[in-house]
């Protein structure tokens, strides 16, 4: 009896997990986004462009009146359903409203200039650094007052595109070119990023 009960309980748990994997809420696509599904991929088209999401083996995508449903075959991990849903939602947002990441360049004499294919940067090295943006990613530059000192100017580099990962990757590469100086705050930083400043040797000596 105990063995039979245990087996039934395991079967019930397994069925429950499968049901949970299949019972996610349907995805509601943003207005103006069209979706096409074949056996291997999902294609989404919006006002900003198009994007594709691969469908892993064991999963299926169905477009219904109530939205887009992702279901798993028996034995497929529930996490795969959540991952595929997240990719579809991310791509739908990208082709409809896009993604943006802003990087600030601060420092006396530091400059950023938009080029045909990306951005040219002067940030304390003996040479200018040029970065080419990949297809689908746009880089824009403008000069604005430094919020920490309105008398000084800094540069805002806006990275935008339909692919969230690509936008984040380009912004991260720009930031790595000259990480923010902890003593003077010069260099690249994300908008809103807090940079902990360290006291210089003179300041430390004065405090002592």
Automatic annotation (TrEMBL):
Signal peptide start-end: none
Record-annotated Large ribosomal subunit protein uL6 alpha-beta domain positions: 30-98, 107-190
Biased composition (Basic residues): 186-201
The keyword RNA-binding is annotated on this UniProt entry: yes
Annotated region (Disordered), positions in chain: 181-208
PANTHER family referenced in this protein's UniProt entry, alphabetically: 60S/50S RIBOSOMAL PROTEIN L6/L9, LARGE RIBOSOMAL SUBUNIT PROTEIN UL6M
Protein name: 50S ribosomal protein L6
Species: candidate division WOR-3 bacterium
């Amino acid at each position: 009896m105990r063995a039979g009960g245990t087996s039934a309980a395991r079967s019930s748990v397994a069925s429950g997990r499968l049901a949970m994997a299949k019972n996610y809420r349907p995805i509601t696509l943003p207005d103006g986004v069209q979706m096409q599904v074949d056996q291997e991929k999902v294609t989404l088209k919006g006002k900003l462009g198009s994007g594709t999401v691969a469908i892993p083996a064991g999963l299926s995508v169905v477009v219904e009146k109530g939205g887009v449903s992702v279901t798993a075959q028996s034995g497929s991990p529930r996490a795969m359903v959540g991952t595929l849903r997240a990719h579809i939602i991310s791509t739908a947002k990208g082709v409809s409203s896009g993604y943006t990441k802003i990087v600030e360049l601060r420092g006396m004499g530091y400059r950023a200039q938009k080029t045909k294919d990306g951005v040219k940067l002067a940030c304390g090295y003996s040479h200018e650094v040029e970065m080419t943006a990949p297809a689908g990613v746009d880089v824009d530059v403008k000069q604005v007052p430094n919020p920490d000192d309105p008398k000084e100017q800094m540069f805002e580099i806006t990275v935008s595109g339909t692919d969230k990962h690509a936008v984040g990757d380009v912004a991260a590469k720009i930031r790595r070119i000259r990480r923010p100086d902890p003593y003077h705050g010069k260099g690249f930083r994300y908008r809103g990023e807090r940079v902990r400043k360290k006291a210089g040797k003179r300041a430390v000596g004065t405090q002592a």
